[in-house]
Amino acid sequence: MDDLDRHAAALRALPPSCGPVRLVAVDGHAGSGKSTFAGRLARALGGAPVLHLDDIATHDELFSWTDRLRADVLGPLSRGQVAHVHPYDWNLRRFDPPRPLPPAPVVLIEGVGAGRRAMRPYLARLLWMERGAEESWGRGRHRDGPAQYAFWDGWTAAETRHFAADPSRPFADVLVRECPSGYEWLPGPAATAGANQIITERDRLLPPSQPPY
Prior knowledge:
By secondary structure, the chain is an alpha/beta fold. 29% of the residues lie in helices and 20% in strands.
């Protein structure tokens, strides 16, 4: 069952993964609920900074933003410095003035591709929103309305190509499933027993009402 304070405490206890920062990725299909979940988790972490990959991607670079992310975010954070992100304006098709992203103890990065191959060496944990592609895309289309249907047609094709070439879910430490009462945290494909592991393989044996740790 949902207990974000407890999970937040476990994340804070992890070893740093990017300089002094515990970088935690929230990945999943577009429309799966990543932004809402990341916002709630950030509040449970006491106001942890959140980097939205919608601010990094562009119309021309839906998934080709790795180099910019390394230069603008991962490099500074790994040195314990404040990173600066130029958010992309999806209406005006241009980058806005930079916003600071401090090297807090925990920094969340959410968006499609947050757990990509190039990112995983910098991550303390990879969380995957456990909602299917078609359901997620349907939610996204409904949220954005008919005016964005053409964009969604192109996006779903691009997302499918991305995850076919560089999947994230097989490497997730935790699968996050939205429930009527909150979120359920389940062991991901990459979860193994060990020190500071949020969820371990043995948790599969626990009844649903019992906390995993």
